[in-house]
């Protein structure tokens, strides 16, 4: 499915660029351009480097991030950036209160193995609050985007969460933290509990796309521990604008990069919270 054409946005030099709709459009343009860089590497043999025991990075992660950083610096010189591979970039000159939170290739392990489930994620915060985001899947040419107060879209068309109301009818998705080998007790109790309660559970390696799939109704719920802000900032906005609910495991405020995340269609949210709360060991987060 095509993400549709988004016309070029004018260079930003005023607070009008704090408008969530304009930030959404810019995020989608950036994600699509970076997605073309990533797509060029699809199907090739890769020699990824290890940032940890199971945490990989490829040359295409870096190329995509370099492009995103360059475009943001050109178009939004007063904005700050938080990027997965290079960290925080402070704005030069006047501070706009806008921060771009970017994952240049979410699902690097999938990409490195040519498994077709990865994306570019571009989220935007204004004064610390996530207000817009875009997640682009370059293999399927699917562009998910949202602006706070203006709904969520796939390919420019409005989307909404599923109507599934019972956990036993729900298709769920999760992911495991990079220290799962050292601390399986943090994630396995809840995983096993959902396996016996839900219709099905998937684990496919891209939190950004998992959130978008909740937003469009392909999944009914998503939970995960220890994600970074670049994994979830865009996707959480998209879920909320699609009519879903996003909290931490206990139902409190979700803070990207700082708390666990539970994102659902809203109808099964409390049931999922109860399963997590009842899971033994250290599964709660």
Total helix count?
7
General shape? globular
CATH third-level topology of the largest domain: Fructose-1,6-Bisphosphatase, Chain A, domain 1
| Strand coverage percent | 15-25%
Unreliable runs, pLDDT <50, ≥5 residues?
Answer: 1-15
Largest sheet: 8 strands, mixed
**Based on helices, strands and strand pairing, what is the structural class?**
alpha+beta
Describe this structure in words.
Helix 5 runs parallel beside helix 6 (about 230-240). An eight-stranded mixed beta sheet has the order 4-3-5-6-7-8-9-10. Strands 12-11-13-15-14 form a five-stranded mixed beta sheet, with helices on both faces. It is about 30% helix and about 25% strand. The N and C termini lie far apart (about 35 Å). It is built from seven helices and 15 strands. It is globular, with a radius of gyration of 18 Å. A hairpin with a 4-residue loop joins strand 8 and strand 9. With about 280 residues, the chain is α+β, with helices and mostly antiparallel strands. The protein has two domains: about 15-160, Fructose-1,6-Bisphosphatase, subunit A, domain 1 (Fructose-1,6-Bisphosphatase, Chain A, domain 1, 2-Layer Sandwich), CATH 3.30.540.10; about 165-280, D-Maltodextrin-Binding Protein, domain 2 (3-Layer(aba) Sandwich), CATH 3.40.190.
